[in-house]
Design a protein that fits this description.
mainly alpha; 72% helix; single chain
């Protein structure tokens, strides 16, 4: 979604599209961690 929005902004210069990009970036920063971070924190039993 970010790539598409950026391409639209580059082609049109539409400020609303730029504001959408900034909103999407903010939402991505608010998401705590990702799957790799969560898996790194799990203690798997060692045989």
């Amino acid at each position: 979604m970010m790539d598409f929005s950026w391409k639209v902004f580059l082609q049109t210069g539409n400020i609303d599209t730029y504001l959408l990009i900034k909103e999407l970036e903010k939402e991505n920063q608010e998401i705590p961690g990702n799957l790799n971070d969560e898996l790194a924190q799990i203690d798997f039993p060692v045989s």
